[in-house]
Amino acid sequence: MANEKVEFQVYNSMTRQKEVFIPKEPGKVKMYVCGVTSYDYSHIGHARAYVAFDLLYRYLKYLGYEVVYVRNFTDVDDKIIRRANELGEDPTALSGRYCQEFLKDMDDLQCLQPTHQPRVTEHMEQIKEMIAKIMANGCAYTINGDVYFSVDSFPEYGRLSGRKLEDNRAGERVEVDSRKKNPADFALWKSAKPGEPSWESPWGPGRPGWHIECSAMSAHYLTHSFDIHGGGMDLTFPHHENEIAQSCAACRESNISYWMHNGFVNIDDEKMSKSLGNFFTIREVTRLYHPLALRYFLLGNHYRSPVNYSISQIEIASESVFYIYQTLLDSEEALSAFQQGTETAKNAKGRVTPQAQECINKLRNELKTKLSDDLHTPTILNAALQEALKLMNSCLTILKKKQQKQQHLSASLSLTELLKEVKAVLDVLGLLAGSTCAEVLQQFKERALKRAELTEEDVLHAIEERALARKNKDFARSDQIRTDLAAKGISLMDITGTTETAWRPCVRSIQEQPASPAQPKKSAAAVQEQPVAPSRQKQPSAAPQQEQPAAAPAQQDHPTVPPQ
Q1: Do residues 147 and 188 touch, judged by C-beta distance below 8 A?
Q2: pLDDT attached to residue 179
Q3: Residue pLDDT, tens place only, 225-266
Q4: pLDDT digits (tens, 9 = 90+) for 75-106
Q5: DSSP secondary structure letters along 403-444
Q6: Torsion, CA 466, CA 467, CA 471, CA 473, rounded to 10
Q7: Helix, strand and coil percent figures for the chain, each rounded to 5
Q8: Alpha-carbon separation of residue 465 from 107, 493, 531 (angstroms)
Q9: pLDDT score, position 558
Q10: What is the DSSP string of 439-505?
């Protein structure tokens, strides 16, 4: 928990401006985020949303709030039923299986478990009770077992999206029903169809419409009045607009203080969508790249800005995280070797250097000021964190050299405090893995080998072949071996003072990079196609994109070129 008082500001989609966050109840926050429709593996659009709101959850806890975080599962829906019929599988079993797959993806991405994860099928009574209240208040009507919400009964309809009633997209997720009083009216309850799951209700057997579930479950766990409601920008209309209408129709006191929405994901500068066949599941990406690399990539862009996913971007993110964990591991090992000296320094005259203390203070302050500015993560990753890592490596250099005892003690103490602060920042950002640094680095290397279509034995054989070429002064051949491996994402490093050579992942050259991490997934997508943002909604200004460092030049083996 941070000790200093922080004026936390978030962008409120309802007012279209940043506002100081003030919870309804001091010290406590209630937030609801719309979850997935569980009929397929989740894609990187889901990763974008849930990493963003996981960061919000983590930061609120860091600020000392007691947070109740609810994220639902839609486990009965037209898409689930259709997919189950295609596979000859029970809809309930299919949706349950993909709920578990989603949770595995979220765990891989370091997303904390929400307080509650309700499923629609487990909350039918709450849904039916809310529909009954809406009908009793004269805001819904029945037609042959179907129940529709009357948008004409809610004059404020459209206030979130900025749309006029005549602009509404009737038939979102369903075919237009000519029996409705207004084409924009939406289903609260759908009458049962042969072969589909159904539940008994006062209006006959059936199942809920898409929108009512979130209103009912958020009210059940958080009451009708809570602090934050979040989701992707594509949910602004019609889903969240309909939620507001039906929640207010059921309870006039219904009120949500802040509506927050994350931006879209583009693939190679094109909108990600099912129709274009250019979307990728989280599982497809994390098969070849560490989940931490995907999370780092997503955090490298402001959550409201469009994010452009490409192989070059995820490769750079992967290299950045590898560098972080290599620095952490090197620091831990160096401090372990100097542990006795560090203890002596605490009891003697050793102290953290002014430069290190300034760096620590800057990193701590940047975390607070930038995250308090509507979760502005890019500056933290690209500036303050990089400065701290650079200084940690400088301390490591001092510890490796023959220096006076006092210099070693100060470097050791400085490195200890820098390591502690960097880990604290990584923890808030969700970038601190539960595994050891060595284990994380090994996982990165395993994926690098998979991308290169090589085995560890292949790389070791190439290292031996290069060593033989150097011994025979065939520097052209040794250079070629290094260059060929670098093109595949494998960098060779000659260890100073020894004849040994190590390897690590690196950014592949452009010509070696495939167009995608896997073949485009052209079967049913994990969620609906992402539509363009509502035309009348004021779009958030794009936050600075992640600065991309240039890849290090390939080291040559010719003796006239000094070693790196």
Answers
A1: yes
A2: 87
A3: 999 999 999 999 999 999 999 999 999 999 999 999 999 999
A4: 999 999 999 999 999 999 999 999 999 999 99
A5: --HHHHHHHHHHHHHHHHHHHHHHHHHT---SS-HHHHHHHH
A6: 30
A7: 45, 15, 40
A8: 41, 15, 53
A9: 38
A10: HHHHHHHHHHHHHHT--HHHHHHHHHHHHHHHHTT-HHHHHHHHHHHHHTTEEEEEPTTSS-EEEEE
The neighbour count for residue 348, using CB atoms within 10 Å, is 12
pLDDT at residue 550, as a whole number: 33
Q: How far apart are CA 404 and CA 481, in angstroms?
A: 41
Smallest CA-to-CA distance from 50 within 77, 71, 66 is with 71
For 84, phi and psi rounded to 5 degrees? Answer: -65, -40
Buried b (16+ CB within 10 A) or exposed e, 161-195: bbbeeeebebebbeeeeeebeeebbbbbbbbbeee
Peptide bond into 238 cis (omega under 30): yes
Query: What pLDDT was estimated at residue 543?
Result: 36
pLDDT beneath 50: ranges in the chain:
1-2, 170-174, 342, 345, 515, 518-564
Give the Cα separation of 60 and 66 in Å (integer).
8
CA distance 507 to 314: 9
Identify the residue whose tokens are 């994109």.
545
How far from chain centre, in Å, is Cα 373?
Answer: 18
- Round to whole Å and give the CA distance between 552 and 547: 15
- Alpha carbons within 13 A on the beta-carbon side of 208: 25
CA-CA-CA-CA torsion sign (267, 39, 54, 263):
positive
Q: What is the pLDDT of residue 343?
A: 52
Give kind and range of the element (H or E) at residue 186.
strand 186-191
Token duo for residue 148: 């529709």
- Distance between CA atoms of residues 409 and 196, nearest Å: 71
Burial of 267 (0-12, 13-18, 19+ CB in 10 A): buried
Going by C-alpha positions, the residue among 267, 264, 204 that lies closest to residue 539 is: 264
Please, which residues have CB within 8 angstroms of residue 48's CB and are 6 or more apart in sequence?
Answer: 232, 262, 263, 264, 265, 298, 303, 307
| Cα angle: 444, vertex 547, 307; to 5 degrees | 80
Q: State residue 324 phi and psi, 5-degree precision.
A: -60, -50
Residue 261 gets the label, from left (phi > 0), alpha (psi -120 to 50) or beta, of: beta
Residue-level length of the chain: 564
Residue 116 is given by DSSP the state B
Q: Which residues of 210-225 are buried (b: 16+ CB within 10 A; e: fewer)?
A: bbbbbbbbbbbbbebe
Q: What DSSP letter does each residue of 215-283 carry, written as one string?
A: HHHHHHHH-SEEEEEEEEGGGIIIIIHHHHHHHHHH-TT-EEEEEEEE--EEETTEE--TTTT---BHH
Give which of 545, 541, 544 is closest to 16, Cα–Cα: 541
The rounded Cα 519 to chain-centroid distance in angstroms is: 22
Q: Residues 160, 255: contact at Cβ < 8 Å?
A: no
Nearest CA-CA partner of 369 in 390, 388, 384: 384
- CA–CA distance, 345 with 18 (Å, rounded to integer): 47
DSSP letter assigned to residue 151: G
